[in-house]
Amino acid sequence: MLSVETRHAIHPETAKTFDTTNLRKHFHVGDIFKDGEIKLIYTHYDRMIVGGAVPAGNTLVLDHVKECGTASILDRRELVVVNIGGEGTVEADATYAMGKGDMLYLGMGAGKITFSGAGRFYILSAPAHHTYPSRLIKIEEAANVTLGSQATSNERTIYQFVHPDVMKACQLVVGMTKLAPGSVWNTMPAHVHDRRMEAYLYFDLPEGQRAFHMMGEPDETRHLVLKNEEGAISPPWSIHSGAGTANYTFIWAMAGDNVDYKDVEMVSMETLK
Known about the structure:
Blueprint: E1 2-7, H1 12-15, H2 20-27, E2 28-29, E3 37-43, E4 49-54, E5 59-62, E6 77-83, E7 88-91, E8 95-98, E9 103-106, E10 113-117, E11 121-127, E12 135-137, E13 143-147, E14 156-162, E15 173-179, E16 185-186, E17 191-192, E18 196-203, E19 211-217, E20 220-226, E21 230-234, E22 241-244, E23 249-256, E24 265-266
Parallel strand pairs: 1-3
Antiparallel strand pairs: 2-21, 3-4, 4-11, 5-10, 6-9, 6-11, 7-8, 7-10, 9-12, 13-14, 14-15, 15-23, 16-22, 17-24, 18-21, 18-23, 19-20, 19-22
């Protein structure tokens, strides 16, 4: 079963008027991991698609998506699959066995996508202009760097998968950040990048715990309260940062004008309001 929700772009002046219900309607990502379903959100932010596929021991096929305007989703797109669950298999131009934390890049033209096994598959897709080779990157093969400290509650390891330092892609830049026990803050001091949108997915958050995702213009911030396996769509004008009531892991994904990870405008702590 496939379902697709469309999200339109929101002007920052409009976002300032939103109450909690409207903020969640436009920017919250939830309920995308349902047994036996593929659930997608088609955004008008750089035409990024975010979603989930949970075969639950059976088989699911992702092929035609009306919103893309092509016969098959990968006819003019690239796509990344991240497994946040048990052992599973993804089949497209080849068959890929995926464990928890593994990422699979599928290039434009790779064909229909079949999901099977016990995986919980997070899906990210953006328009493509060139076919780059598909590639499975196991979590132990990803480039990684450890930053922060326990003193500032942000000791974390950043895993770079679909990243200029690791491989070539058209638009997508995707990685994963794991916070150490006792650390709860991510991406602070905050930043914005007007040339790229970003999507977050928080997972491995214990039952009953929550992540507070910060968003909005630097001098007009808002927040979303998220539970495990929920996330946020971050417009180019918005900060994207978060803190949890326990440590967690999150996936970050960008699409837009370039793949320059350092093309950001830093926001000082004094600027935040």
